Amino acid sequence: MRLIIVLFLTLITAFSGYSQATEKEKIIEKVEIIGNESVPKSTILYYISEKPGREFSPKAVSEDIKRLFKLGYFENISVDVKEGKRGLILRYFVKEKPIITDIVFKGNSSISSKKLKEELGLVTEEGEETKLKKPLDYKYLDTLKEKIQEIYLKKGFPGTEVYYTIDRISPTRAVVTFIINEGRKANVCEIEIKGNKKISSGDIKDVLLTKEKSILHLRFNAPLSRENLEEDVKRIEELYKERGYLDVEIGEPEVVSMGNSCYKVVYRILREGKPYRFGRIRFVGNKLFSSKDFLKLDKRIRPGKRYNQKEIEKLKRKIVRKYGEIGFIFANVSPEVSLNREKHTADVTFYIYEGERAYVRWINITGNVATRDRTIRRELDLYETGIFNTVRLERSIRRLFNTGYFENVDVKPKVVGGSNKVDVKVNVKERLTGVFSVGAGYSSVSKLVGMVSVSKGNLFGTGDSGSVNLQFGSRVLDFYINYNHRWWLDRPQTLSTSAYNNRYEYFTYTSKKTGVSALVSRRLWEDWKVGLGYLIERDKITDIDEDAPEIVKDEEGTETIGMSTFFVSRDLRDNKFLPHKGDYFKLTTQLAGNFLGGDKDFYKLVGEYAYYFNFNDLPVDWELPFIASVHAKVGYADAFGNTSKLPIDYRFYVGGDTSVRGFKWGEAGPKDRNGDPEGANRELIFNFELGYDVTRMLRLIGFIDVGGGWWDEYKLGDMRKSAGIGLRVLTPMGPIRLDLGWKLDRRSGESSSEWHFGMGSYF
């Protein structure tokens, strides 16, 4: 209506000016735009058909006004005509709509303003708010209003009311405020299943997205909404099909109000039917693998077994992955089910399109500033012109993460159109790898100690690393230097060398150690690693008091340790510093003897295994940012030859931040008559953790540790136990861990708990 009135007045104005012109003055001399501020004059003139030199037409002016209104920039437009020297002058008077510069929300307590803006598309993919420069448009605002109500409806607020106000902060700028009356959230107080005989109501309720109000479901309780109810029907159907009931029919859910925002939902099973069994299983189109190869992937799919739709989908994914492992990433699998309703059997045919093997065309590396391209490329299990497959892709990401030089690694393949080529983009975000620290400390044992430390990873972008550490004081002198040369001799192997010289004056004795070591570790068989090393060390214990522990008195004098080390390991963790999934295995042997240049004969054997499970890998729709892990470690050591007892520094000391937390160092193992830890030659440790990822760099954990150390035997009934909580923080300097453990079997004279702090991986 407003547009019609404006056009009517405009035409009256135009014709009143035109009536004063003579027939000879119908030609337009000039077109003027008056009142525009934000919209450029050239933009307005572009949409005006009346131009200088053309014959004046009231009808054309009317069309121009309509066209300008459609742009959405103006709330009022008028035109007048006056005489000029050589014709008519058309003046377009425009009043621009204010520009919406911001949208704010009031009354929203259940959904944050940031979340609302994300849902409304007012936030970019990078998480930044869109800078609004939109002309005031009531249709647009009405659309946002409806979307807000839909958002609340999906969250279980059926009675949410929304209206908006417009505040003009200047003649050309406005802020829109959406006032939200959320109302009360709808709670499902009761769920009833009717018509089910073959599957229990409990099993059906377990698969529903909608849950009855319960303390146990506070976090994962889906809101009552039409969308979720429709999803529930699909889930019930899927459950029946997993059990072989392919003729199942589900009715529309019924929602009954029980008052006070409490609702009852009734799900009706109209028909269950009889269960089907697998009939003939066929694979068509496969040349690279046999039907037997595919059937080995899922033993539940066999003729005569109960039909299961979920297993069919699972086998489909496994077949695609099997092709992807050999480079056929374009493979496609389409299962087709044919029912025999008389025999209640289901024949399944898997139609397979194998496609072509994929090859890498280009590998493009971005984001690296300090790291050389070559350093990154050599860690990749992909190379240009080589085969591209999913296993190589996963292994490449894992290797780059585990170098410890990158905060984030993103490897994205892109298929080159019309070919079997793939371009691989490797984007890395480097972390801080150089640390210089100067400090001082004090303890009752060492007194005042000064500390200087310099460490650098990814030295000169080559992947090498090194460190120099010095501690000095009246009772302490500790110097340590090491260097790790990655890809030594241009092979996937690392040469690690170190040298140290230290002196510690304890209350009852003085210890001096000087030694050098070298270790060569090499990657074999893709994910396996082996290492061989040698250490030569001179130990001297002097100034022993009468009150010193017996194990110290037994070690008085000077001795030389010559020892070889061999290990084999496999690391399939996605990130060794803050793992989310995968496993880790390592077996280490150490052998010391006269034939290796030492005075002592002994050996050690240590095996450990860790497994990590990500709860998000469970087949549920909930977001579960939890990581469970279990770690086991077993140690066996003994002396032989002319050595009667295992040297003090090579015994197992159970208790502390890397074994059984909640106990002091060595407190969970054997002790001498004075109550001091004396170490052991047998150890067995189990660690159980449940972690919650607060952010990508911060994890909260709860743990239970069980372990013990013994001489010449394993006493499982004598294992010590503890539980506690902790933090894992991934910093630019490396992972930091902080744990607080409580003893579950506290003994007389022991503290109830212990704090533990450290840097680096735990296990």
Automatic annotation (TrEMBL):
The keyword Repeat applies. One of its GO terms (cellular component) is cell outer membrane. GO terms for biological process: membrane assembly. Pfam families: Omp85, POTRA. It is found in: Membrane. PROSITE patterns: POTRA. InterPro entries: Bac_surfAg_D15 (IPR000184), BamA/TamA_POTRA (IPR010827), D15-like (IPR039910), OM_assembly_BamA (IPR023707), POTRA (IPR034746). The keyword Cell cycle does not apply. Residues 1-21 form the signal peptide. Its main location: membrane. Keywords: Cell outer membrane, Membrane, Repeat, Signal, Transmembrane, Transmembrane beta strand. Coiled coil: none annotated. Residues 26-97, 276-355, 358-431 form the POTRA domain. This is Outer membrane protein assembly factor BamA. It comes from Balnearium lithotrophicum.
